[in-house]
Sequence to fold (117 residues):
Amino acid sequence: MLIPVTDAQGGDRNQRGTHWSLLLLDRRDRNRPIAYHYDSLGDYHDAAAQRVAGTVGAARVIRMGMAQQKNGRDCGVFLLEAAQALIGQLIRGQPPRDLDNLVPDRRALQARLQRLT
Fold:
């Protein structure tokens, strides 16, 4: 299960959040699910990821390697590109892997999304 994580605070309009990261919840062992956390700002979202992982019953959270964004606005692009890469790994039967070599491209992502509409 892929879960977007944000640091937004509930329904408070003044706390809309500043960042997005991605959790991959591995439930193959239903008694001890594991969450893999992919964050394009390093450990910025560790607390938020822990909170979300606990909510969905993950026994632990493993921080995974992830390419790092170089600006303050591309976290959503990184999240979507990471999700696509992880889905590809899962389809090929591979375990979750680091995404240090991910090369997100905002314009290429926009073009792919426009083709879907």
Q: What stands out?
A: The mean pLDDT is 90. The longest strand covers residues 20-26. Residues 75-91 form the longest helix (17 residues).
